[in-house]
Specification:
Blueprint (H helix, E strand, L loop, with lengths): L1 H19 L7 E4 L2 E10 H8 L5 E7 L5 E4 L8 E5 L16 E2 L1
Length: 104
């Protein structure tokens, strides 16, 4: 029975990582709504409190054109494009468009 629980927990972590995508603190990405800086990645209770819903993670971003800061748990999709990650996180990028990545 413990094996099933561990497998489920591993799947939940893998799902959360896939939903979060390559967004790490200090990364920049763009989509059809604008270009964003990732200010923080929240997990667990901090994420749930920040977005007031059941989630395992949330991301706090700043819209570069408006300076508007928001916290959300919108999943990474093919419409999102990574611009750069901080050099300390460069090895963590798991986006299929990794060729667009440049480090600072």
């Amino acid at each position: 029975m413990m094996i099933g629980i561990a497998s489920t927990a591993g799947s939940a972590v893998e799902r959360a990582e896939a939903e979060l995508g390559p967004r790490v603190e200090g990364a920049y990405y763009w989509n059809e709504t604008g270009t964003y800086e990732v200010l923080a990645v929240l997990r667990g209770e901090a994420a749930r409190e920040a977005v007031v819903r059941r989630t395992d993670w949330a991301v706090r971003t700043r819209h570069l054109a408006t300076d508007h800061v928001t916290t959300h748990c919108m999943v990474w999709t093919d419409s999102d494009h990574l611009i750069s990650v901080p050099s300390s996180s460069a090895g963590l990028v798991n986006d299929s468009s990794a060729e667009a990545v440049s480090t600072r």
